[in-house]
Structures are given as structure tokens and as C-alpha cells.
Design goal:
By secondary structure, this protein is an alpha+beta fold. It is 18% helix and 26% strand.
């Protein structure tokens, strides 16, 4: 599903306190770190600036483009290529690889994400490293949506409330 991963692996992260989040998925999410929801007290959490909106709009033009490892064009795109190309269009240089992108900007709590922030994931069960990145397009209470390139579906918008992405999520970072 993520860049460099085609497996749908979910790790059970159980602790003494559980919260259930209902999703469109067949099974609700049960986890302690679900307490981050609801996200943002403001119904339409504003991006950190207009530049963030422009970058997100630029990324959205690639929606529907097929996945291609190493791709950065409408002929094919991978997850970090989508983010790299979108920021580059506005003269912002980021590393080309998601695990290196995860060292840029400032880490932010999930409940503070805004449009344009980056979300990082571990989607490769064999390695304990960042392997996927997406860019926040919507930050509403209880739902963060992000644009990314999925190995199986190409460039799409997904929700962090989806079981796979929720359990693969590692951190959020603000570049702008």
C-alpha cells in the first residue's frame, strides 16, 4: 500500500487504556494512541500559510497518476516524488527520499496538524525505518486526510483513520 510496501501488515499496539475509533473499515481501531483524536479544535484547521494551500493544490493535480518507483511526473509518481515535486514547484528543496524528508522541518503533535504538513509512515515490516510520506490535505476533528502515492492505487487521498495508515503512522512534521 505504501511506497516500497505491498503488504497489509498491522501491528497490535495494545496497552491498558484503549479507545475505539470508528472508521469505514470493517474493524474499528483499538489503540491507546487513538487519544490524539479528535484532531484540531477548529473545524477547518487552516494551513500554516497560503503557500501550503498552493503546494497542496499542486500535489492534487497528480491525483490518479499511476505509481512508479522513483517517478516525479504525470507518467508515474512515488510517494516521496509527489512531495518532492510539489514543494520543488515553489522553490522549496526537500530530500528525495521519505526517510530523509522525515529529518526536515519540525515535529508536531498529531492533534496540531494543518494542511500542508507531512505525515510519515513505516510500511515495510522488514525494516524499522520511515518508508512512506503523505501531505495533509484536510485536517478536521477526528479525520486527517492526506495525498500520497500508493504502490497499488497510484496517487490518491487517504484518511489517517483508515486502519492500515493509522497503525503505520510514525510522526507529523511541518516544513512551512
Amino acid at each position: 500500500m505504501g511506497c516500497g510496501s505491498s503488504k497489509h501488515a498491522i501491528t497490535d499496539k495494545t496497552t491498558s487504556s484503549k479507545v475505539i475509533i470508528h472508521t469505514n473499515d470493517v474493524n474499528p481501531i483499538k489503540t491507546a494512541h487513538a487519544s490524539s483524536y479528535p484532531l484540531n479544535d477548529e473545524p477547518n484547521a487552516k494551513p500554516s500559510n497560503n503557500l501550503a494551500l498552493n503546494i497542496v493544490d499542486y500535489a492534487k493535480q497528480f491525483e490518479g497518476v499511476r505509481y512508479k518507483y522513483g517517478g516525479t511526473t504525470k507518467k508515474g509518481m512515488d510517494c516521496s516524488g509527489l512531495v518532492y515535486t510539489s514543494f520543488k514547484a515553489y522553490d522549496i528543496d526537500l530530500p528525495r527520499i521519505s526517510r530523509n524528508m522525515a529529518k526536515e522541518g519540525e515535529p508536531i503533535p498529531l492533534e496540531q496538524v494543518k494542511v500542508g504538513d507531512l505525515l510519515f509512515f513505516k510500511t515495510n515490516g522488514k525494516h524499522n525505518a520511515i518508508s512512506h510520506v503523505g501531505m495533509v490535505v484536510t485536517a478536521l476533528p477526528g479525520n486527517v486526510e492526506f495525498i500520497h502515492a500508493s504502490t497499488s492505487l497510484g496517487v490518491i487521498i487517504s484518511s489517517l483513520a483508515e486502519r492500515y495508515w493509522y497503525f503505520s503512522f510514525v510522526e507529523a512534521r511541518r516544513i512551512l
